[in-house]
Task: structure prediction
Amino acid sequence: MFPDWKRWLEFTRKAAWALLLFSLPITSFPHFPGFMGLSTAVVRPLALYPLILLILLEILPSFLRRDPLPAGAGPLIAFCVAALASTAFSLVTPAFPLAGQTPLSRSLRGYLTLGMGVAFLMAAWRMSVRENSFRFAARWLLAGGFIAMLWGGLQAFRLLMGWPGYEQMNSFQRLISVRDMQLLRVNGLAFEPSWHADYLVVLIIPLLLAALATGEHPFGGERSGRWVTGGLSVLAVVNLLFTYSRGGIVVGFGVTIFLSLLELVRRRNEVKIMRSSEKAGDPHQLGRRERFLRTLIVLLVVALAVVGVSYLLSKNYYFGILVTRLNRIGNLQNYLISIGSGPRLALWQAAWGVFMDNPYLGVGLGQSGFWMWDHLPLWTFNYQSEIMETFAFSSMGYPNPKNVWVRLLAETGILGTTLFLLFVLLVVLLALRAYWQKDRRSRFLGLFGILSMAAIVVEGFSLDSFANPTLWLTSGILLGSLSMPGNAKREARQDD
Result:
């Protein structure tokens, strides 16, 4: 009887982990019980349900067993302590209520969102250690991504062809989101297009690029896996382009360039080894002419892709003004205002002002919005009616910095931000160490981690929620898969 119970428990853990990864694209699920306090929250991932199950079945038992924490846990624990202390200290002299929010309610919400993020990290870490295989996580991430991109592709088809009808598609969208489907942009299964783009450039595209670069395909063998990965990559690019998310597309392009630079450095080292082998009479090395032709073909394909994408985006007003307003680039502030980035710029500057007034510990989690009004730049009052509406007495919209790094500075100060960046740096170093290994599986995981963490750092300049799972999952997966000695070898034996 006991072995059957253990087998059922293990199956439940594995199913919950798979469901968590599969459901990540659904960011604002409307069906949560009232006692969870999510009725006013925008970030409401469906993955919370399997996360709760993993907390009960895996995270809490691991604490009771006093299992060792991952290698990068020290800075993260110190950051959480600093953030909690800063938030508690801010309640000694609280701010005035704003937009129906009180300092106490925002503090509790800040604790909740940070705890939710850390719980996602802990679940990813524990299940990665337990599974001993990144391929399992990669497959379920891509399975969920395929459903989201398929739905996003249908939305893109509607934009181009006018079919299916908006009402029919939106009726399904409202089953899984608190917000209507976008009329002129693709938002997949997410709350808005920029969130769908964030999901793609932080998780899906780095995973696909790593598979293409290393030849370690999550689905199928060498040949069939290449076709599956290539097809998913095309679908991901289509989805990303039709989100018309300027930040997401720039990050996606930047991640691809970053991958090219990494591979160039690696291949340069390999070429040196090849030349030394050629001198020794090794007949299996590629000739210079074949390498030149391959490079030329790749450059030609990239050039054609850039031309095609540029033409497509130029037809969209949202992107077109990036070029038509270039005559104002001499004054960067005026240029950003003219292309519609004024509200975001104003909030960044206001949050920076909050940080400058409280540089060491910040004002506490969730508290920055109470202090931003006094730090809004003067030009905001002339140009940005959206900001004025946010801060109006009758408004129910609570202001946010719209930038996780400025928010960290404003709410946790230099101390908290330094600790969090140290944690990020440790994760990146683990990924780099894996990338420079000789075996393909380690390089696959390491390259995914490097590209994903790079995207997270850049995407943080346009997103500001600690409850966003994509911010934590990559770190948890890497810590679980890379911080345990010999994981790569065990994974190879398990998959073989």
